[in-house]
Fold:
Amino acid sequence: MIVFDMFIYFVILSFVGYIYECTAMTFWTGKWDNRGFLYGPIIPIYGAGALLSTLFFTYMMKNHTPMQVFLIGMFSTAVLEFVVHYTMEKMFHEVWWDYSKSIWNIQGRICLPASIGFGIGILLVIYAVNPYLLPAIRWLNDTFVKYLVLFLLVVICLDCYYTVKSEKGYYGLADRYTDVFDSKMEHMVDRHLDESKAWNTRVYKLFEKIDKKDRSKM
Structure:
């Protein structure tokens, strides 16, 4: 069924998004940065963005050009990112990302450089990932897909449940495993990265030259 296939697609791209986000932000800051909101190694906003873009360009706008994919992807992911940021902040009273130091940002929730990056990401998803990933998912045995979807759905629902409990002050086994994992990753990253040479310090200096703002005080 198409719904089961799309759910597996969503989980895979959410996992890819987690790997990308953690890797990028670790090099950006010069220290280990676990970007996941959930306990598991997925960031659903990436899966949702990729899934919605795939459905849109497959069923609604079949005759599209790469420029249209880029522009629509950039705008739609910016809207999605803003809505998710606002919703999570209001629900949990925490901020998981902040673009305040970036140029051309809106309330620190979204910024033009990040939106351009997401637009490029959608281009890669539509033209480089989907031609290989979608046929691979369709190739899977139907019975296997049903059990896999059921398993993933249960795991993600439990993950969401315990994540919400954690945000309300509960500290359990999942938190202890996460602390151990983060501690090991921090130790490994510290051995190979120098925080003083992180990408953000170089980029913010470039931003300062562009719009003449002292970003060290923001």
The longest helix spans residues 2-29. The two ends are 50 Å apart (CA to CA).
